[in-house]
Model the fold of this input.
Amino acid sequence: MSIRIEKNVPLPQRSRLPDLPFQNMQIGDSFLAPVPVGDQRLIGALRQRVSRYQKTNPDQRFSVVKDGEQMRVFRIA
Done:
């Protein structure tokens, strides 16, 4: 088996989540996340970001739900 080296192949553009406004939210607030429902990788990244924030702020709880063609994040506690 031989591996072929290719030249001039552009690096794919990465999708990144912007800074999310968790610290500015009150109970009952929500925001529409820039994550399409079909992009499981970005949905996983969004859920991981929410989980990480909740671990460092245990008094705040959030819920991530589908809202049309995007995801919405609610502060629930």
The beta strands are 30-36, 62-67, 70-75.
